[in-house]
Write a structure and sequence with these properties.
Keywords: Heme, Iron, Metal-binding, Monooxygenase, Oxidoreductase. Belongs to the cytochrome P450 family. This is Cytochrome P450. InterPro entries: Cyt_P450, Cyt_P450_B, Cyt_P450_CS, Cyt_P450_sf. It is built from 20 helices and 10 strands. The protein is α+β, with helices and mostly antiparallel strands. The chain has one domain: Cytochrome p450 (Orthogonal Bundle). It has a 5-stranded mixed β-sheet with strand order 1-2-8-5-3. It has a 3-stranded antiparallel β-sheet with strand order 4-10-9. A hairpin with a 4-residue loop joins β1 and β2. α6 crosses α14 and α18 crosses α20. The N and C termini lie far apart (about 45 Å). It binds protoporphyrin IX containing FE (HEM). Protoporphyrin IX containing FE (HEM) binds next to α16 and α20.
Length: about 400
């Protein structure tokens, strides 16, 4: 501990080398100080498992962070911001209890594992059809672009009730909303496009709600409407605001789970052989990927008031980065933490977060990733990585490949 501690030098989390392979650096940061004030990031970096859990349970740690996002908008784009930030303020992930509970309960039933299992057959068929079109055995291709990216998009569009004809605009708006929320938008023009895209997305989903009210179908919007809580527990405006979050949260995260799980298997022939020999282990592979190289690296919070964290005084208004990617490798919580273990027991990883904001889409994401990885492992005995050199999108929050070149 002391050796590492004395040698520790802080690095920028978006430094290309750290972003490409963050885990060695995050391990040394956690060993140095599981709660660390970073002047570089102007945030507390919390990397210890217990310390992250403590924050996720503490009402002094607030999820309300729309204001800082708004403050980042350049002056020239501010006039476009009001309605867009009104929408973001209705996202459950940015709300604290008790309001958060009121918003979330409207969707709870539709996301339960039993409810989402209705989409298994659709997912299996869509996977089969997409692989038949895009992944001829023996041919080379980019598994990220061919399969991992479009497949969850197809399932989520079907599940939300977005018709294939509207898919292109729907996913374009979504990508621009992601630029806003993930801090990719930089200049005025980019902010304008992102803010307007969020408004367009809400208008589109608002129209879908009107259509489904008159003529229900077999999709998420219709089943939430049938629950009778819209206009009662939450307003219609809150409902459409939350739907924009569903659209945003469902797509790329699940793509990354598929790609990162396949990467782990393709990099380790013994793991791949084990999963081939016992297909039920696909679920364990997805779960270990969520712990070791999951799509989400951290959750951001703000201190609502002064509080003590491991002997450090966190001040009201301070930013807190809950670095779940580091907590998930904490040796105090996970024996042999850097090892991909298909038989790990009782792994309460934080890949889907924890507590009030635990990912509501976890069952759906697990289902889609499990089906896609399972079919690829079963039906493509020659599947192999085409290059050891891989690129990662530069992002504080997401762990996302830029491509996954393979031989099918
Ligand atoms: C592998 C895929 C996914 C990962 C890794 C993931 C990860 C997460 C994480 C870490 C959180 C907690 C955020 C925080 O505490 O600040 C979260 C929340 C959330 N996720 Fe996911 N997610 C995934 C898929 C999905 C899907 C498919 C949906 C819906 C279609 C979804 C909807 C949500 C929503 C609505 C929240 C906010 C919940 C709340 O605030 O109560 N996610 N997700």
């Amino acid at each position: 501990m002391t050796l590492t501690a004395t040698r520790f030098t802080e690095r920028y989390l978006l430094d290309p080398a750290v972003n490409a392979d963050p885990y060695g650096y995050l391990n040394s940061l956690r060993e140095h100080a599981p709660v660390y004030w970073s002047a570089m990031h102007r945030a507390w970096l919390v990397t210890g498992y217990d310390q992250v859990m403590r924050c996720l349970r503490d009402p002094a740690v607030s999820a309300d962070r729309v204001r800082p996002l708004m403050d980042a908008v350049p002056q020239g784009a501010r006039e476009d911001a009001e309605r867009a930030f009104g929408i973001l303020s209705r996202w459950m992930v940015f709300n604290d209890p008790p309001n958060h509970r009121r918003l979330r309960q409207v969707f709870q039933e539709q996301f339960a594992a039993r409810a989402v299992s209705r989409y298994r057959t659709f997912t299996e068929r869509a996977t089969g059809a997409m692989l038949a079109r895009k992944a001829a055995p023996g041919r080379g291709g980019d598994l990220w672009t061919d399969i991992a990216k479009p497949l969850p998009a197809l399932v989520f569009a079907r599940w939300l009730g977005v018709s294939p004809a509207h898919g292109p605009s729907f996913w374009y708006w979504n990508a621009k909303v992601a630029d806003l929320v993930l801090g990719v938008a930089q200049d005025e023009a980019e902010y304008r496009t992102s803010l307007q895209s969020l408004v367009s997305l809400e208008d589109y989903l608002g129209n879908l709600v009107t259509e489904r009210t008159a003529d229900p179908k077999d999709d998420l919007i219709s089943s939430v409407l049938a629950g009778g809580r819209i206009g009662d527990t939450v307003t219609e405006q809150e409902f459409t605001g939350m739907l924009t979050q569903m659209a945003f949260a469902g797509g790329e995260t699940t793509s990354n789970l598929i790609a990162n799980t396949l990467l782990a298997l393709l990099r380790d022939p013994a793991l791949l052989a084990a999963v081939r020999a016992e297909p039920a282990l696909v679920e364990a592979a997805v779960e270990e990927t969520l712990r070791l190289d999951g799509p989400s690296k951290m959750s951001i919070r703000n201190a609502a008031r002064d509080f003590d964290l491991d002997g450090h005084t966190v001040r009201a208004g301070d930013r807190i980065f809950l670095v779940t990617a580091a907590a998930n490798r904490d040796p105090e919580r996970f024996p042999d933490p850097d090892r991909f273990d298909l038989h790990r027991e009782g792994s309460t990883h934080l890949g889907f977060g924890f507590g009030a904001h635990f990912c509501i889409g976890a069952a759906l994401a697990r289902l889609v990733a499990g089906v896609v990885v399972g079919v690829l492992v079963r039906d493509y005995p020659g599947l192999a990585l085409d290059t050891p050199a891989l690129g990662w999108q530069n992002s504080l929050l997401n762990r996302s490949l830029t491509a996954l070149p393979v031989r099918y």
